[in-house]
Amino acid sequence: MATLELDVAEEAASQPARKKGRRLGMLFWVAIGWLIFVFAVAIFADVLPLPSPTDMDMLDRRASFSAEHWLGTDGLGRDELSRLIHGARISLVVGLCAPIIGLVVGGALGMLAGYFRGRLESSVVGTMDVLLAFPPLVLALAVTAYLGQSIFNLTLILGVLSVPAFMRVARAATLTLARREFVIAAQALGATHARILLRELLPNVLLPLLAFFLLGVAVIIVVEGSLSFLGLGVPPPISSWGSMIGEGRESLDVAPRLAFLPAAAMFLTVLSFNLVGDSLRALTDPRQGAL
Asked: Among the four 92, 184, 251, 274, which has the fewest Cβ within 10 Å?
């Protein structure tokens, strides 16, 4: 009887671990595989046996699939596969660097506002509300017109626009944790505010921020594509998925693949980031268990 009770107890204890493992699911690993593939081809684009993405051949415009051009050529005779792979670099660089700005700046502001409260919280929240109320397209137009089109300027614009979202996530998590027992105990032992923020709160706030970061990457990739589609992205001849979609719309009647291929690559990448972000957010949700 004692052995049976022990087996039942071990089975009950192992159920949460198995549920957490099953929670990831097959789609999660498929998304991870696609992201690894996209990052790999983007990183090693220069060593892959591909034509230059900027070499034009006006006699071979909109060519169909062939052994020389696996995905054909665009309206200027440039290799579509090469432009798709090199365009992934721009979309991933902007999609990763811009949320990092939001993560660092917004996360710091959110933690300070949620911990100290009072006037600091009112000032930070009010500033973020003003930034959210300002039309992002107008801000992008103004910065682009004043500073010019470049990867750095585009990343800076999108990074600033992502700060309010990260601030709200960090502030909400900090408000939940600021009155927990381990924080009160650290205060009672005489720990400084800096130590409490860095040693007690940051490790707990960082998990939901990182999960939200992956969702932010997906959003930024779409926004970058939209701005490039409107002509506000990186300047030519640099290609991104958004600019390729914009260029391909002129050939929808004769070569729709020129718009659909980069759109499909963007769709799969954004979907993969969303799936991974949602899975990690579910695993790090404090409502699923005690911290």
From this structure: 184
